[in-house]
Amino acid sequence: MLTRTSTQSLTEQLAARFAERIRNRLLPPGTRLPSVRECARQQGVSPHTVVAAYDQLLAQGLVEARRQRGFYVRDSAAAVQEGRAQGAVKSVAMPLPVDASSLIRGMFHRQSDKPQPGMGVFPPDWMESTFLPTSLRRLTGTRALQELSLQYGEPAGDAALRRSLSQKLVSINVPAGPEQIITTIGATHALDIVSRTLLRAGDPVMVEEPGWAIEFARLESLGMRVLPVPRRADGPDLDVMAQYCEAHAPKLFVSVSVFHNPTGYCLTPGSAHRVLQLANQHDFHIVEDDTYSHLAPEHATRLCALDGLQRTIYVSGFAKILAPNWRIGFLAAPPAVFGRLLETKLLATLTTPALFERALAWCIDQGQLRRHADRIRIRLDGARARTVKLALSHGCTFVSEPAGLFGWVDTGVDTDALTQRMLDEGYLLAPGSLFHARRRPSTLMRINFATAQDAEFWKVFGRVRG
Amino acid sequence: MLTRTSTQSLTEQLAARFAERIRNRLLPPGTRLPSVRECARQQGVSPHTVVAAYDQLLAQGLVEARRQRGFYVRDSAAAVQEGRAQGAVKSVAMPLPVDASSLIRGMFHRQSDKPQPGMGVFPPDWMESTFLPTSLRRLTGTRALQELSLQYGEPAGDAALRRSLSQKLVSINVPAGPEQIITTIGATHALDIVSRTLLRAGDPVMVEEPGWAIEFARLESLGMRVLPVPRRADGPDLDVMAQYCEAHAPKLFVSVSVFHNPTGYCLTPGSAHRVLQLANQHDFHIVEDDTYSHLAPEHATRLCALDGLQRTIYVSGFAKILAPNWRIGFLAAPPAVFGRLLETKLLATLTTPALFERALAWCIDQGQLRRHADRIRIRLDGARARTVKLALSHGCTFVSEPAGLFGWVDTGVDTDALTQRMLDEGYLLAPGSLFHARRRPSTLMRINFATAQDAEFWKVFGRVRG
Fold first, then answer.
1. Which of A150, A179, A376 to mutate to probe the B interface, most B CBs <10 Å?
2. Could you tell me which of A226, A197, A205, A466 has the C-alpha nearest to residue A331?
3. Cα separation of B271 and A402, whole Å?
């Protein structure tokens, strides 16, 4: 928010705010800035301040004025060419879906104090606990700390944590010994390691759609051919998968079985069985992303459990329940691919921080994490009930039965445009296009049940949607 | 080491030790195990124990007996096929130089208490300090800890650390503002991000040779075409580079200017100027790996300083001076490529742990790190003098003037075979083949001046080399 007590003038603050959004591509090239009058109203400043701020953006080459039509964000290609003329080299980076990754960046880094319905995690205060600080302080005595800091540590990850994780996995019928587990920088890194190990550029890979934007973007940045598989209430569309297998012989299927993101669907045992039959028949691997395992019902169906970790690789992490910035994830893999997965970890990051891993092991072993998850599940149930009521009363409908952390709702309007307008009001949404491999515009959006239970948000939503 | 007080029998311990080495491919397929008599001598156990251990390995399918010739490690391809027959899928991982990455794994994870001349870092006791624990304990108060744990944190990395790093860079004439810096999981991750962003599979990339094994292995695993550039005392071979530029139009050059690994060479200003001219003429980027910056002389020449970070990207980290397992590295990049590098970080790991980053910022800001580096440099000077004397007296010659952390020595015998034999004695070497893009066997090896100043090692070395 703009503030009169800042050392910067209101004009400078406003210009800086737009400049950052343009650089982050939250305002992509070609976007029209709000009219001077509209912007002045939104920001609570005078039209004169807005005109001066737009002038600064013009001088910085970030926007262009089109006669009678207002100010538009300049094409970044033009900006790059300009940079090149000044001596910088041409960017040869791979084409990523830039708007998606900018929105995603926003999802992880709060830009405002308002609750953000597009966020992918619980609000920090939900995750507060007394055991987290305790778990870490136990290890900050000089000797333990130096032991855990001054050597690279085990390539596969802290042995104590791998033992704890193994027990956790066995308890959900995924038979993984500690020697089959590799710790990673969050589940994201685990999925990255799996793709890089099992696929080469140009390889076809099946991914559920709707699905998580980072998975699509990463696979594309690695040059893979993404084959989107429609996700149904009971599991992936098996007919589509069978056709892909015949036509493309994909090597990998990326799947979220439990509380699928964004739909909240859970895989049924029958569907799981048929997916595994297909994998056996067509000889592909499956990576099962179990990021939401901490919120899962007790008898949830997982491919890795049915398969006994033969051609499946299990991935999960602790960002959704304990501490997003500790960046702890892991994978559990069949012995036949373990060595190569470990090599990829080494080539990408060498080892991972053992201090956090050891602290997490304690949280698991003491039962603290389980009790913490129990509390959060109960709190989430209450939040979900309130959010569902608010969403329905504002004309949204649920595409899938509300469950887990996310709701998948139909707003009735284009959510790309809506997201842009809500950003101006200080709210981050997660538009449906983010969850489609080709970023197809849609009227859907994902809401976080924990952060969308705020009446003020829905009031603004109702006004902006019109 | 085997121990009689363990819960495992000596046979089990010995079998487990070989099995681990085979699985890690420290003993690659086709390797002959030591004779029963030789192994009994080395391990201080009875021949009966060795026979029983070899029998266990045979039963596990890890080795095969060849009549009259002893036991040989089985071909892992056969093992994989067997796994496949048992229902596991064929491994489709990219072909990595497996022996290299196994040796590298050994370099980061100590398997023995003996000093390891092949290691890539200082021994832990060299890095001990009182300020490291202090820096972390300052942040383990409940409020600070939760602030640094319960949100993903800034995508580019902790702002306090990026400010400190910016000041450090400006002090060595690399003009990087905090907004040009991205923190990473060690320098390895920074180099990984740069390759993934600027190159696509199949792209040609120039890398100095001899050079760091992980760089070769990573680029190959990503499908890049590695063009090795001979590294001379003053810098890379410019004639070879010019030929590559004409023939292949490479997009990137990977270089270590200061205390090049493994030679210890430092780039001269004249060579730096000509490298940059070539880069301008042929429009390629340069990533300068300044991992050994903490040991560098004050007026060391860096490409990023001459170039002003226009077509150069700076990479460094803190594993070689402060805390390897904190896994803090960073890159500083021109604005034209910054956004895409940040996207790659997000796609690979999202954010990085802010707690360690904030603690490191304090160590830098308080001048603690600088004083610590001063002490280590003095200690290293002493160790280098002793190691050089020992190496020379054991018939080794230095290929390059001893400087920095590593010595590049000629042993007069094939160092691949020597490495295998020294492993049996409990010592890890870094054979010359590791530092060549095609793993060409050589009589050279890299020694760590800090860990090779041990007379006992050189005695064993002299005996084994013969």
1. A150
2. A197
3. 64
Closest Cβ–Cβ partner in B223, B323, B347 for A217: B347
A351-379 per-position pLDDT tens digit: 999 999 999 999 999 999 999 999 999 99
Tokens encoding A384: 């979900």
d(CA A113, CA A123): 11
Beta strands in A219-344 (DSSP E): 225-230, 252-255, 285-289, 312-317, 328-332
**Domain A100-120+371-465 grouped into CATH 3.90.1150.10:** yes
Instruction: Supply the pTM of this predicted model.
Output: 0.83
Alpha helices (H) along A256-398? 269-282, 303-307, 335-349, 354-365, 368-393
Q: How confident is the model at residue A340 (pLDDT cuts 50, 70, 90)?
A: very high
The DSSP line for A102-132 is HHHHHHHS--SSS--TT-SS--HHHH--SHH
Q: Please, which residues bridge with residue A446 across strands?
A: A408, A430
Sign of CA dihedral B16, B17, B23, B27: negative
pLDDT tens, position by position, A65-108: 887 778 888 875 344 333 333 333 333 333 333 356 666 777 76
How far is the alpha carbon of B353 from chain A, nearest alpha carbon, in Å?
A: 5
* Closest among A387, A399, A174, A150 to A272, alpha carbons compared: A174
Indicate the SS3 state at residue A72: strand
The verdict on A100 touching B (C-beta cutoff 8 Å) is no
Averaged pLDDT, A234-242 = 97
Residue A6 — pLDDT band, cuts 50, 70, 90? low
Flag whether residue B286 sits within 8 Å of chain A, measured between CB atoms.
no
pLDDT at B91 over 60: no
Chain A residues 16-35 within an 8 A CB cutoff of chain B: 23-25
pLDDT of residue B98: 39
Q: Which CATH architecture has domain A142-366?
A: 3-Layer(aba) Sandwich (3.40)
Per-residue pLDDT of B276-292, as tens digits, reads 999 999 999 999 999 99
Cis peptide before A262 (omega within 30 of 0): yes
Q: Out of A93, A140, A223, name the one closest to residue B337 (CB).
A: A93
Give the closest-approach CA distance of B282 to chain A in angstroms.
10
Q: What share of chain B in percent tops pLDDT 70?
A: 90
ipTM exceeding 0.85, yes/no: no
| Every domain of chain B and the residues it spans | 10-86, 100-120+371-465, 142-366
Angle at B414 between CA B408 and CA B420, to 5 degrees: 95
Residue in this structure with the two tokens 């039962």, named with its chain if needed: A367
Name the CATH topology of A10-86: Arc Repressor Mutant, subunit A (1.10.10)
Strands B430-431 and B444-448: antiparallel
AA identity, residue B379: R
Taking the CA of residue A154 and the nearest CA in chain B, the distance in Å comes to 6
Separation CA B242–CA A280 (nearest Å)? 51
Torsion (CA) A244, A250, A252, A255 in degrees, nearest 10? -10
How many angstroms separate the CA atoms of B368 and B61, rounded? 53
B70 three-class SS: strand
The H-or-E segment that residue B382 falls in is: helix B368-393
DSSP state of A21: H
